[in-house]
Amino acid sequence: MSGSFSVSGSAPCRFAHYFVVCGIDTETGLEPDELAALYQWLEADRQGRDPDAAATGENFEQSPLKRTFKSKVLARYPENLEWNPFDQDAVNMLCMPKGLSFRTQADQRTPQFHSFIITREDGSRTYGFVHTFYEEVTSPQICSAMQTLTQMHNAESTSANTPSSSSSSSSSMDSLASSLDEADSPTSSSSRRAGSYDSSRDTLYVSKALCLITPMPFMHACRRFLSQMHRAVTAATAPPLPLESYVHNILYEVPLPAPGRSLKFHGVYEPIVCQRPGLGELQLADFPLAEAFSLLGVENLVQVFTCTLLEMQILLYSHDYQRLMTVAEGITTLLFPFQWQHVYVPILPASLLHFLDAPVPYLMGLQSKEGTDRSTLELPQEANLCFVDIDNHYIELPEDFPNFPNKTELIQELSEVLLSYGISANTGAPPRTRTCPGSAPGSTPSTPGRERKTVALRQLEDDGRNGNLAGEELAVLELLQGNATLERLQALTKRTGVTVARVDALRAGVKAQLTEGQGGRTAAEEEELKNAKLNVQLREVCASRFTTMFADYEAFVIQSAPDLESWLTNREQMHNFDKASFLSDQPEPYLPFLSHFIETQMFATFIDNKIMSQWEDKEPLLRVFDARIDKARLFNVRAPSLRSSSYQRCTILKESAQTVEQRLMKIDHTAIHPHLLDMKIGQGKYEQGFFPKLQADVLNTGPTNNKWSHRTATAQRRKERHRHQTEHLGLENDLKEKFMQEARSLGKNLRQPKLSDLSPAVIAQTNWKFVEGLLKECRMKTKRMLVEKMGREAVELGHGEATITGLEENTLIASLCDLLERIWSHGLQVKQGKSALWSHMLHYHAREEKLEQQQAESPVSHVPERRKSDCSMAMPSLPVSLIQDMRHIQSMSEIKTDVGRARAWIRLSLEKKLLSQHLKQLLCRQALTKKLYKRYAFLRCEEEKEQFLFHLLSLNTVDYFCFTSVFTTIMIPYRVVIIPIKKLSNAMTTSNPWVCVSGQLGDSGIMQIPKNVLEMTFDCQNLGKMTTVQLGHDNAGLLAKWLVDCVMVRNEITGHTYKFPCGRWLGKGVDDGSLERVLIGEPVLPSGEEDSGRGCYTPPLQRSPSQIRRISVTSLSGRGYKPTSAQIQEAIGEAVNNIIKHFHKPEKERGSLTVLLCGESSLVSALEQFFRHGFKSARLFQKTVFVWDFVEKAIAYMESADQMGDLQETAEPLGRTCQSLCHYVNAINSTRRNIGKDGKFQLLVCLGARDRLLPQWVPLLVECPVIQRMYEDSALLRDRATVSSHIDVLETLHDFPITLEASIVKGIAL
Questions:
Q1: Which residues fall within 8 angstroms of residue 37, CB to CB, at 6 or more apart?
Q2: From which residue to which does the signal peptide run (predicted)?
Q3: Counting C-beta atoms within 10 Å of the first and last residue's C-beta, which end of the chain has fewer, N or C?
Q4: What is the dihedral of CA 702, 705, 711, 717, to 10 degrees?
Q5: Element containing residue 972 per DSSP (H, E)
Q6: What is the pLDDT of residue 226?
Q7: Contact at 8 Å (CB) between 1179 and 1281?
Q8: Is 901 exposed, middle or buried, given 0-12, 13-18 or 19+ CB atoms closer than 10 A?
Q9: pTM (2 decimals)?
Q10: Quick check: 582 pLDDT over 90?
Q11: How many C-beta atoms surround the C-beta of residue 252 within 10 A?
């Protein structure tokens, strides 16, 4: 972020590297800015014409005074530095981002200050500070050229009475350009005489920029130095020394302050002081954070800070370049100990607007023009964009945005710090999330229009909302005092007895401030001190949040490589951080934010730096952060497991401010004073109002006798020797650099767009980098999703962590949605709505409907429907249709925006295993893709597109329920098909059947099935994963017996089909006499669809009881199915084990407990086998006997024995257990439900497991004399050792809270 790591060992410690002058080159004259040519090229490319043949003529529609002309670097001192080569194009473009601007004497010509930053490819930064002022044009050629242009413009505007209408669907980039060029009137007075320059009566002025380029962001010091230089030029008397002396002094004789020290050097008129934080402190940040908080409000700034941490696309928007820089630097300095890893361009030059098309996270600043409205600003992509309108104090946030942990308390603490310095801790305009495009721009209260602008100005004036700094009042007063007209007016009003109270009060207030601040310091120094203290305190508040949140991060860092080389080589395959364990250790409220944050590039880089610190010096930010954590541990001995979400305030605010104050009060070092140089006599001549051409020979080389330059050279040689020694031991630097560029991130090698060459070839090359980056990101994301989902299998294959929480899965899917939006936004030609993907789908839908209409008129071509697997038997197949899925999403009233619809559609397609297939179908209409996308777009790169679809196809190998589990309140149509066993039963029954479907989120309620109908559909609120079906009838009529094979239920939106096997009779006097059965579901796996890429290879999540178990004991023995005693014992152990495993899983991954209790291989199934073993001949007197018959007889015996007093002598607990068993069995028998004998046994086992009574009931049944009549001697139930071991196994379930589904215990009040 700051200079603390920009100044590498190789850079000598000079305060400033270059002094630059930019302006108009009188020799080449007026040249139109490259911007116009670039737009013509892009527009020709969009329309399919040859872009190179596009005319590069002048733009006569605009007044020459409003046009932009090419600026040049007129001079730079020194010519070049080996350690920091001068980038002429970049510096020129950032000194004058709009190019040259012209003014006449009628226009406002206030000098402006702004800063900029150049990020090199290795991530190091150089800062630029620019003072722009207007200088009179003395060249007659330029004046006459301007006169000619004005006449041509006037002729053009009179001839073209009708405005040229441009195509309505203009490129988003072009509309962006036009919105930036609208209403560029500097003042209202000049709009009256727009374009009216007459060389005979007007004086022409042109902008000129003085710039200092420094390795560290000493913003205040550079600002004061440059303003003093300008003052020296405009003052009536010449400065004490030639200007060369001051430039030479700051370039060669002023050193960088040493860490932890302060420095004083001299400008033209006054001394300037700066200070640099020590090695253990937060890095240097000189941009006034208070201003950033005042401009946006505390809450808004915290929200933008959160977006930055989550690496969203952030676009800052303001008319003032310095505001853009202040907010951008303010936000990034708050990130400590993390660093922004992606594109960072706080001031985006007009000629780089195409960079907003970048499909990567970015933090960019865009200059707005006066009078333009946010609604006119068409941006290439907005699905994941945080838009920050600085001037109007409002922000637009992306959807699905998690809050920063303890956000309210953080805002409160920051507000208190601001208030302690007298700054109103206002919260700015309320943040807005994206609204649906249908809403009228005027309808939203916070639309930035003229209305809001006047309100904003009024509030600025009243000082109510903005907490204006005293410095701003000072500026207002300076403006009033410097304005001759206002001074005359004021004098006149005083003579006539009228007082201008506001100005007088302002003057008095400023005077009071000046006298109050005089501890030997000027008001400006006082202001700087206040800013420095406030900056460090605001940053300490945020830093302490991270120190608290990541206090134990080291415990979760996985350090698996033996040396640096092997770690760098295998970096991509390695897991460096145990994310699942880290998240499981965090307080619940932190999880939504943290689960997203630990997936970011900045966190990955932080962990990489931590691992690399084993082998090399610690990265400076990491060193400071680790030292703070160690210090916190000394004072706060806390067990890492006892994490709490309570807010811990920053404890070092006072001492951090004192440290800064002491440094600024006691100057550690004073630089050499500016002095006369050995210059030719007569040069450096002074002419008021004009910045002279400086003498290059004295400024291109520095003194050789400087003590600190020698110190630097010695240190340099020492470092070189050390580097040569370590070179053969360590890793080659170029390999490490290559790794940093490639392995870490796709955005990192695009941190700063290349500002030098803006040819179409360069734009194409940049876009090619984006395409490669997007493909790589897609590969990484799909691999990560697969590895996490495969869990244990993946660990065995060596892919890292085993567990994935539902929360983490949701985060990964959300980041996939974001990636798809960025891919669909790349190279977009026509911008419609906030979501590029949804917009494309709407275009596709419209085109398909047109084709359908044409086909309806011509003979119909049959499209084969997807065949369903055999196990769905009578279930009609569900067609695969992208448009049908779109319609489902459109009918969901809960989703209000296009971005939300696109995300829901992605989740639905992922759940249906159709994402790759649908997107392939969407992109197969090549004419549509060509119409919507430019040539360089990702979606028009055939090979990359194929690879991308293949990566998405790999997601079909795992099961997702990401739609069903997220949209829990929507209405879903379900289809139910009842399949009878036709050979043995009348398919139709005279009774009135009913059905009730239950899932993890609820049930459908009892629904009557129309007579003689075996298929029905119903709408119901999302049931989630389906678990049980209750099926029954009322036993009416002659044919009241029904033999049902199974019930099939399908979710008509997701296509999930469940089979509920039955294989039993429903009817009185047949089977076990049941009129109602509770059936347990199993998902039907789609088979025979590998050709469409939907094959699912994961094992089924749930299985339900096989038909064999559901047939009565007699028929079982009749079929000769008799499990051995060993198999039965194993089955009981397995069933109990499965239930215990269920409770040991994270809650969101558990699946259905009902299946483990009542399904196949379940507890009920195993105990039924146990009770059946050794059952005596089941058919006595031709009547089928069931296990429930034995239970009833045992209960009857116990009750009769109790009446005769035999049980009264038994121990008290045993008596109570006996009573509980009798009570439960009688309650089950007396229920109004006709669930049959096997249904009753199932209910008893479930209730016994729930209420922890099973192990107590089994001995009672074993001890009952009835057992001798009904069981053979070899029965397991009569083997005491076996019974005892099973009781021990069942007792292990007591540790877990077993809850039963409503469908199982319906009608039982126990």
A1: 56
A2: none
A3: C
A4: 70
A5: strand 971-980
A6: 93
A7: no
A8: buried
A9: 0.72
A10: no
A11: 21
